[in-house]
Amino acid sequence: MKPFKSIFLFILFFSEANAQKIWSLKDCIDYALNNNISVQQSIIASKIAAATYQQSVGSLFPSINASSSLNYNYGRSLDPTSYQYVDQTFQSGGASLNGNLPIFQGLELQHNLRKSSIDFDVSKLDVRKVQNDIALSVAAAYLQILYSNEQLKATNDRIEAVTKERNRAKILVDNDLLAEGSLLDADALLATEEFNKASAENLLTSSKLTLIQLMQLEGANDIAIETPALEIPSQESLSLSSESVYNEALKNLPEVKASELRLKSAKESLGIARAARYPRLSAFGSLSTNYSNQATSLDGNPVFSGYVPSGAVTSSGEQVLQPVFNYKYIDTPVKDQLNNNFGKSYRIQLVHPLI
């Protein structure tokens, strides 16, 4: 039982250590930026944009692909080496190498490259925007917890004071020194403050849950935060005009820069659409070969075996004889077939839209 007891004590100690952790505002923001789902989604979207940009760069270069096949044929099939139909089971195969080079596509590829580059920059700015939004939301939830804590403390102080006044009023009423209505007023005031306390506790719980959700803090239903030391802002920051703050935001906010880049991206999309009106010139090339286990080749020279009637006769009525040769065939090696069946092709294609 000792191992189980040790594990239980370790888990208990670990849980207590987590429960006692005091979170600063920086800790909360850093944790949220690393774990919040919205931030992770924006980062993944940025990676997708980066892959799209790399793909658009690759589209400017020739595309080359290779293929190979191995076939088993049953029944009547076309032999790829002799181009004759055979009615038997045989094995065949082939390989090919194909290339495609876009020469002119109406500048579509260039517009697409610039658009994907801009979209990649936009995605990075979107990540910054989401991070800023999450940081602001975490800070707001953090401040709300601080406010709720102070409100709860103030409510407890008022309850303590009202309770003392209520007890004092009860003593006076019991001794006929104060009207009973004053005691009822004190009870009503105490009930109001207790209601305010319940509302403050609910607001505090709700604020903590909001912060926990923003941070994506797994397995937590409560969080303890530290009360930061108050720092009085400098007079320079307090004297900033609304116009200067607005101009500074225009220069630094990522969503402003992202909107400007999205406008440029839209112009590149217009260029891509216009490119469809221009002719397209492309070059193609391929190398291929094949083989079949039915391929045979002549082994040596034919052997003369005599003459046989050809079925024709001369004008004098004599039969016409024809020589007969015996041929010996052997299977053609795969290497020889691949060399003999090797083929090349090149093609230039011009496509012009009519409408």
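Above is the first protein from milestone M3; the second protein from the same milestone is given next.
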Amino acid sequence: MQITILIAAVAGFSWLVVVGLIALAVARKTRGKNIKGVITGIVVAFVAAVLLNTVSAGLVFIEPQERGVVISAVAPKGYREEILQPGLRWVVPYAENVKVYPISKMTYTMSIAHSEGQIIGDDSISARTSDGQEIIIDASVMFSLNPSEIMSVHIDWQDRYIDDLIRPSARGVIREAVAQFKVSEVYSTKRAELAEKIESDMAATLEDNGLILSAFVLRNITFTDEYSASIEQKQIAEQKAEEAEYVVEQKKFEADQAREEAKGQKDAAITEAEGRAQSQLIEAAAEAEALRLIAEVLAANPELLNYRYIEKLAPGIQVMLVPNDNPYFLPLPDLDYIQGTPTPETGD
């Protein structure tokens, strides 16, 4: 691109030189001076200017994000069928010119905001749902020209593809898509489905006209004041219902928790009682077994009980007085007198 600008600049400067030399020749001629050398300079400068201007008219630089359509006076169809690709290209000077089209992504926005879209002022889309409700939509269409369809775009639309294709097609597709949904579906359950349908239909429309849809953005949906108020009231009612349901669920949870806690206490009490009963049974069985063993030992050694009784008495006891009307619990053996004291029977 810089070389084409440089050549055009040099060509323009050459014409200035020609004009300057002509003015110089006229001045010298008026004074009666020789202008032969000046005439030669004019001729040389003129030839150089024509050549440079011709080269400048024939050289075209196509940017990487561009493609060129060659309008030709010498081609049978009035244009070259081949599209100019990026780089420095040559066309027939004065007989051909190049119309450049961008193939980079572009965005066309339609918005209710005053200066947000391509058109200053309210450029939003008014559409009606299947149940007759009016909604206002802000949207953006991201698109690009199909590099292989540049010639078709040039023939069909030239520079009008934004105003005469993108804008009206988007508005029409949006209105047709909205008409297939209820207003309640648009603002809640099927908003994503609506956006997908618009994008699909828009992509097909652009493809048929040599463009590529990169993305469709459903920026905003606005409802009428009356319907917005009804939505707000409905949301408030739903929120209150959810809060009431939450309270009920909380109370139910607390009741279930109390029941589980009572059941746990009951099970713990039963387990504790069963443990005590089992312990008592074990103790009773142990005591019974102990008594059985004691009984067996006493049966085999009847004097053992007397021995154990005497053993439990104080070590120094020698005489024990018992009321005459109180029987002995145990069959005690005869007690001898203290050693050295005669017994009544022997008199010793």
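Note on the second protein: Residues 225-300 form the longest helix (76 residues).
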